[in-house]
Amino acid sequence: MNGSVRTSSWWLALALAGCATPALRGTGDLGLVVERGSGRVLIVDTTARQAIGAVEGLGDLSHASVVYSRDGRYAFVFGRDGGLTKVDLLKQRIARRIVQAGNSIGGAISQDGRLIAVANYEPGGVKVFSSETLEQLADLPATELGGGRRSKVVGLEDAPGNRFVFSLFDTGEIWLADLSDPATPRVRRYTGIGAQPYDGLVTPDGRYYLAGLFGEDGAALLDLWRPEAGVRRVLSGYGRGEQRLPVYKMPHLEGWAVAGREVFLPAVGAHEVLVVETENWRETARIPVHGQPVFVMAQPGGRRVWVNYAYPDNDTVQVIDVPSRRIVGTLKPGKAVLHMEFTPRGGEVWISARDDDRVLVYDTASLAELARIPARKPSGIFFTSRAFVIGM
After folding, report:
1. Tens of pLDDT along 147-205?
2. Regarding beta strands 369-374 and 186-190, do their DSSP bridges make them parallel or antiparallel, or are they unpaired?
């Protein structure tokens, strides 16, 4: 081979190498773990059970939550400092970021995937953005309290028909906002629904919105199929409960506690899980548990419900068998268990232990530990399968 041929071959090889693309992969087994103390999220692979990357610069993640684009490629991270960050899971970097408020408490993505809504404490209200560009498309200021203050917004959920539903903590309201045309939002307001609604869930079929009440016993229920019927009070005794125990951490309701025709709810200020049938929304049982529940989460398939707890019992996770309503397992994953997340078909559960700086993976059938993943003060765990679930 003469020199000119060798040179041509070398340049051809170099050109082909330059055209090479990263290995192709889907996003179905990816997710994020929030590191609340470092302003960082870990990108995790649930098949490999390991972290495969990290994205920094996301601000205050002390109460962060995440929703996903329809294709599962982009995560939208809601920071406590009002930050809204769009993270590209495949390129492992920030795609866009804005600071849209002073204090935020979560958000939701519309049914068609075009809109991102953010619930704000300060200034109180909901802002709506394009999921593509993060351009603001709508602003829904909450009810005024006087002195330039507005009610805090909590329990923001997506609902079918490109609607969002949320509660106003300070004024005892539920709002149902139709954003089919973001330029002209249509808002239906329900007042006098009860004292201090603190969180809400939309049932997996998209029919009901349930807001828990912190300021009094009971909950507020809105039938999204018949919104003209108004909000009705249900579950007398659900709120703080008769014992009036100190509440160290507010429980969460969002979406996970529905198993079959029953909802399993954390009792506020009591060491109990409440069982509620969804036909008439009546309480049917109370299950004594280890402490004050924070998350009560139904495992995919609905056969088991997993519960974690507020301080000082926050080193424990318990597993409830739905048919018998008995505790069938108790785990001690570590100090300050903050969150649990199931793999899409329910074979594994990932659990964050903040004060031990680790995430643990368990087999949901045997309860055997499968993996430990180092993480800096981990809190929320969010898998891309949420992209396909109403109210998540």
Report:
1. 989 999 999 999 999 999 999 999 999 999 999 999 999 999 999 999 999 889 898 88
2. unpaired
Closest CA to 204 of 263, 163, 258: 258
Please state whether the predicted TM-score (pTM) of the whole model is above 0.85.
yes
Amino acid identity, residue 200?
G
Distance CA 5, CA 1 (A): 6
pLDDT at position 259, please?
Answer: 76
Using the Cα atoms of residue 144, residue 147, residue 148 and residue 150 in order, give the sign of their dihedral. negative
Copy the structure tokens of residue 367. 């309860």
What stretches of 123-247 adopt beta strand conformation (E)? 125-130, 136-141, 144-146, 149-150, 153-159, 163-168, 173-178, 186-190, 197-202, 208-213, 219-223, 231-234
Structure tokens at 391: 């109210």
Residues 214, 250, 309, 383: is their CA dihedral positive or negative? Answer: positive
Cβ atoms of 100 and 77 closer than 8 Å = no
Q: What is the Cα–Cα distance from 108 to 390, expressed in whole angstroms?
A: 10
Alpha-carbon span 324 to 275, nearest angstrom:
12
Tokens read off for 52? 């495969």
Place of tokens 């560009």: 133
Does the structure show a pLDDT above 60 at 93? yes
Q: Please give the C-alpha separations between residue 114 and each of 128, 163, 205, 218, 382, in angstroms, as whole numbers.
A: 10, 12, 21, 35, 20
User: What distance in Å separates the CA atoms of residue 178 and residue 250, rounded to the nearest whole number?
Assistant: 29
Strands (E), 224-367: 231-234, 258-259, 262-266, 272-277, 282-288, 293-298, 304-309, 317-321, 326-331, 337-342, 348-353, 358-363
- What pLDDT is recorded for position 6? 46
Q: How many CA atoms lie within 13 A of 183 on its CB side?
A: 0
SS3 content of the chain, % helix, strand, coil (to 5): 5, 50, 45
Alpha helices in the chain (DSSP H): 3-19
